[in-house]
Design a protein that fits this description.
Blueprint: H1 17-40, H2 44-58, H3 83-92, E1 109-115, E2 129-135, H4 141-160, E3 165-170, H5 172-176, H6 195-204, E4 206-210, E5 212-213, H7 226-235, E6 244-245, H8 255-269, H9 273-289, H10 296-305, H11 316-331, H12 334-348, H13 363-374, H14 379-386, H15 393-420, H16 426-443, E7 465-472, E8 480-486, E9 501-503, H17 506-515, E10 524-528, H18 536-549, H19 559-562, E11 568-575, H20 581-587, E12 613-619, E13 624-629, H21 634-646, E14 654-659, H22 665-684, E15 691-695, E16 698-702, H23 717-724, H24 746-749, E17 757-765, E18 768-774, E19 780-786, H25 790-810, H26 814-820, E20 824-831, E21 840-844, E22 858-864, E23 870-876, E24 879-882, H27 883-886, H28 890-901, E25 914-916, H29 928-947
Parallel strand pairs: 2-3, 5-6, 7-10, 11-14, 17-20, 22-25
Antiparallel strand pairs: 1-2, 1-4, 7-8, 8-9, 11-12, 12-13, 15-16, 17-18, 18-19, 20-21, 22-23, 23-24
Helix pairs in contact: 2-3, 6-10, 8-9, 8-15, 8-16, 9-11, 9-12, 9-15, 11-12, 15-16, 28-29
């Protein structure tokens, strides 16, 4: 339905100059309101900068800021300074006198526009001024150079007045052609965006002086015929060419721009997630509508044509929020919507709780208050957000889960969108891969990796006073754990409080607290060492060693380093943490002599004084990892893993060995360091060596062993299938002889095996289906599953396989990855469906899912436990569940969490979507078959728990 004051200038029915003038007046009325709002939020000196910029581009005067020479292009179309502006200029320079230029002098500056957050809900004291200086096309290179120099001088003058200004030169005709080689705003990712930047310009720009946009006068329904419509306006003299500035239209946005915009915002979001959430979601909204995208600038223009000129509702940030709100509500994604609301509130940064209510009202605060009431936020919610600067670990950890889930969702969405639109050219793919590795390094969980929980959420997590406690692990009798608690707690007080963090090993806890800034140089620590030998002296030195090896803040990681697999830059080995080796041997009734001998074969009884090793590494991707060695062969196992990690690479980490135990600490550290230095030197000689090492009464030799060939005899089909399901280290084709497996589905599956891909085969049998997977080494995995439809059968497996392929790719040099590509995942269906023998195999397309379709993430991390056991930690939509907290009820707790998140009560199957086994694999690699076998075992335990609920 048309608005009563809506203007519809139609080419066929004739265009009225009066109507066009009325339209321009409406835009200028809005513009005036926005400019007033922008000025209201600026200091008096910042206001002066914004007011005087047009004058400084209009005249050249040696005593005015920005003067380069008398020949610098000057003069703004249709601009004449008013007396108030001239008075301000004379206050700067007494001798300045303005002389109006008569006749028709050239005015090469066509217009000045302020774009960005000024004049919007999100304007803040530190908001910068991005100004587009649009100029004539016929300026010589010398004139453009002078104008560019003038912009630099004016930016410096603005800075002296307390204003951060960025002035960008724009030649409109070249801009319309997409020709530019520089950024056009301080938040611009460069030349990969044109239409999205233009969209932002048209809905945020405030006209300061000169010509007004021709785009204002083109109805939305004529956007597709923009050229024809504007040509008619100009050729029939409804408007004059020198009254308008043409920067182009928004009839179509190429899909590649959504990928480029998303990449840029994701890159920024890794360190400042709140600032990126709104733009990431808007990009998702636009991309989800492609190719019928109704961008916000067109919505804005439609409102002006309809005479809906409410400054609040047409505020750029309000329009972004309303569009995202509509999108997420339609999808039922209320948790994501709450994150968007929090992000907007924190972006605006106008506190509404407590004493903040007594502050003078502003239009921003009033609008934000109206929004918060609309959202149903109470005083408690407002107070929590207003105290963000004081947030500590608990609140940050909760918020991080939501933010990381959103960033990962955006990355998956971008990858899927890029594939669906065929926008992944080589440059896009490189950028996607580098960004994927940045996300992987920042947020991916792996065994032993220390999670960084504060990506721009709160300014400071340091605690003044903490208590460190070792206690018995009630969930695992005979085992101990370490906990970190707020405050200075007495011997039994800590039992009544929940810890900030709990870990099995001390160094895991200390490295986490250091990496996240929870413990800094001013933190006071109370220690309750429990059954350990840890002293305050040792604790102080452990923290000092960590601070030295992992100095904070960590420097940024370059793209060049991300193009290569991560390598260890710093390695810290801490020997006998919390253990006194001599006391340990006394406790075992071993009599020690006072003879000072080798720490690896100590005294007359030849005991090894190296009982434990804690290894902390910082790699080239800024990942901090911790690994503990504590068996009788701790030193040998650590040395073996260390040498294997070096391989033939020339890069060598900086190795430090430290020991702070009660007895012989320095001698132990020196002996361990000597062993590592010797072994590393031998490895560096590039020959086969054998290193004989005496530890206790045993001699150990490090050497290479040749592979062996063996004959395997199998006496049943079941045994054959079990053999085929064993993990393989390399690809080996399988040749079926005669009628082998004639009556089995595998007779059709096995001959199709091929290297460098993962092949998924499935056969539907009424209410269930058999799934077979041949991995990249031709090892088999099989599973029988309930069958509803192909999508629910294959999509969970597809997500899992994509995640392990991503992990594999992250460990390859990017040039090698480009050369050999990721592992393809291929799909086949065995036919016919139903009972009886399979007769053929038909290739199928990969299962398709609606772009951006949400699903429940369940990630598992499997690490070595005591003896032959493993420790499993599960993360359900970023929330952690571990055996440390839940013991043998781990799977029941996870099943309960999953059921609670489902929209209906149906007990359909739970799936693992991602799995990390790096803690079990010395080289960090493993075949897809191994991952699938662990997946099957974990899902079995999880679904059995689900069935018993």
């Amino acid at each position: 339905m048309n608005h009563p004051h809506e203007i519809r200038p139609d080419l066929d029915e004739g265009i009225d100059r009066k109507v066009l003038s009325q339209l321009r007046t409406r835009f200028l009325t809005l513009n005036h309101g926005r400019l007033e709002r922008a000025m209201e939020g600026l200091s008096s000196r910042q206001q002066l900068v914004l007011s005087l910029l047009p004058l400084f581009f209009h005249v050249n005067h040696p005593l005015l800021p920005g003067y380069v020479s008398g020949t610098t292009p000057a003069g703004i179309s249709h601009f004449e300074p008013d007396p108030r502006l001239l008075l301000e200029a004379q206050r700067l320079t007494r001798s300045f006198a303005y002389k109006a230029r008569h006749g028709n002098p050239p005015r090469p500056i066509h217009g000045l526009y302020l774009m960005g957050s000024l004049g919007t809900l999100a304007q803040a004291e530190q908001s910068d001024m991005d100004v587009w200086v649009c100029h004539a096309a016929d300026l010589s290179e010398g004139e453009q150079a002078e104008l560019r120099k003038k912009c630099q001088l004016l930016e410096a003058w603005a800075a002296s007045q307390g204003a951060e200004a960025h002035l960008f030169l724009i030649e409109p005709h070249s801009f319309v052609q997409g020709e530019r080689d520089n950024q056009l705003s301080s938040d611009d990712c460069g030349t990969t965006q044109h239409y999205l930047l233009l969209d932002e310009f048209y809905r945020t720009a405030i006209w300061l002086a000169g010509r007004t946009p021709l785009w204002w006068l083109v109805p939305v329904y004529e956007e597709l015929r923009y050229q024809r419509y504007t040509q008619t306006l100009l050729s029939k003299r409804f408007i004059r060419a020198d009254d308008c500035l043409d920067l182009g239209h928004l009839a179509h946005i190429p899909p590649g721009e959504f990928v480029g915009a998303g990449l840029w915002q994701l890159y920024k979001g890794i360190d400042s997630p709140y600032k990126s959430v709104l733009k990431l979601l808007l990009t998702e909204v636009y991309a989800s509508e492609h190719p019928q995208v109704q961008c916000l600038s067109l919505q804005f223009k439609q409102a002006v044509f309809a005479n809906r000129l409410d400054l609040d509702e047409l505020d750029p940030y309000m329009m972004v929020y309303r569009r995202i709100e509509q999108y997420l509500q339609a999808r039922g994604e209320h948790e994501r919507l709450e994150l968007v609301r929090r992000s907007l509130y924190l972006k605006v940064n106008k506190k509404l709780s407590g004493l903040a209510r007594q502050r003078a009202n502003s239009w921003q605060r009033n609008l934000l208050r109206r929004l918060s009431q609309e959202w149903g936020w109470d005083e408690r919610q407002l107070a929590l957000l207003d105290s963000r600067s004081q947030w500590k670990v608990r609140q940050v950890a909760v918020e991080r889960r939501t933010l990381v889930a959103e960033l990962n969702h955006s990355y998956r969405f971008l990858c899927q969108f890029a594939r669906s639109q065929n926008t992944s050219n080589r440059i896009d793919q490189r950028d996607l891969n580098v960004l994927g590795r940045r996300l992987y390094a920042a947020f991916e969980r792996r065994a032993g990796k220390i999670e960084f929980i504060n990506p721009g959420i709160a300014p400071d997590l340091a605690e003044d006073t903490l208590t460190l406690v070792q206690s018995a692990n009630r969930k695992e009798p005979g085992q101990y754990l370490w906990g970190l608690y707020n405050g200075n707690l007495g011997v039994h007080e800590w039992e009544h409080f929940a810890p900030i963090k709990r870990c099995r090993e001390l160094l895991d806890l200390l490295a986490w607290a250091h990496r996240n800034g929870v413990i800094d140089s001013s933190t006071r620590l109370a220690l309750h060492p429990g059954s350990s030998d840890l002293s305050e002296f040792e604790l102080f030195n452990l923290l000092g060693s960590l601070q030295h090896s992992v100095p904070l803040p960590l420097p940024g990681v370059s793209d060049e380093r991300l193009l290569q697999p991560s390598v260890v830059d710093e390695m810290l080995l801490l020997v006998n943490v919390g253990v006194d080796p001599l006391q340990h041997h006394r406790d075992l009734n071993i009599v020690m002599t006072t003879e000072r001998t080798d720490s690896l074969s100590y005294a007359g009884v030849r005991e090894n004084l190296v009982l434990t090793l804690d290894q902390i590494t910082l790699n080239s991707w800024n990942e901090v990892q911790v690994k503990r060695y504590d068996s009788e062969h701790a030193l040998l196992n650590c040395l073996r893993d260390y040498l294997n990690s070096l391989g033939s690479a020339e890069h060598r980490p900086r190795l430090q060995v430290r020991c702070f135990c009660h007895n012989r600490a320095q001698a132990i550290a020196q002996r361990v360091e000597a062993v590592f230095d010797t072994a590393q030197a031998l490895l560096g000689q590039g020959l086969n060596h054998r290193y004989l090492l005496q530890v206790q009464q045993h001699a150990h030799v490090l050497e290479l062993h040749p592979a062996a060939v063996e004959l395997i005899t199998l006496d049943s089909t079941e045994a054959l299938v079990n053999y085929l399901c064993e993990e393989r280290l390399d690809y080996s084709p399988l040749h079926l002889d005669g009628n082998a497996l004639e009556d089995h589905d595998l007779a059709h599956v096995l001959p199709l095996g091929q290297p460098a891909c993962i092949q998924v085969f499935y056969r539907v049998q009424d209410v269930w289906a058999d799934v077979y997977v041949l991995d990249e080494h031709n090892a088999l995995w099989q599973q029988r599953l309930a069958y509803h439809d192909e999508s629910s059968l294959l999509l969970p497996l597809q997500r899992f396989l994509e995640s392990i392929v991503f992990r594999r790719d992250a460990q390859l040099p990017l040039d090698k990855l480009h050369a050999q590509g990721s592992l393809d995942i291929l799909y086949y269906q065995l036919m016919p469906a139903g009972p009886g023998k399979a007769r053929s195999v038909e290739a199928r397309q990969a299962p398709t899912r609606t772009i951006g379709t949400p699903y429940y993430d369940v990630q598992a991390i499997v690490q070595p436990g005591s003896g032959s056991n493993v420790q499993v930690t599960l993360y359900c939509n970023e929330q952690e569940f571990s055996g440390l907290e839940h013991g043998d009820q781990l799977y029941a707790e996870v099943a309960r969490q999953i059921i609670g998140q489902r929209r209906d009560a149906e007990r359909y199957r739970c799936y693992i979507t991602d799995l990390d086994l790096s803690g079990l694999l010395a080289d960090g690699q493993g075949s897809s078959n191994l991952y699938l076998r662990y997946k099957g075992e974990l899902e079995l335990a999880l679904n059995e728990a689900l069935a018993h609920m």
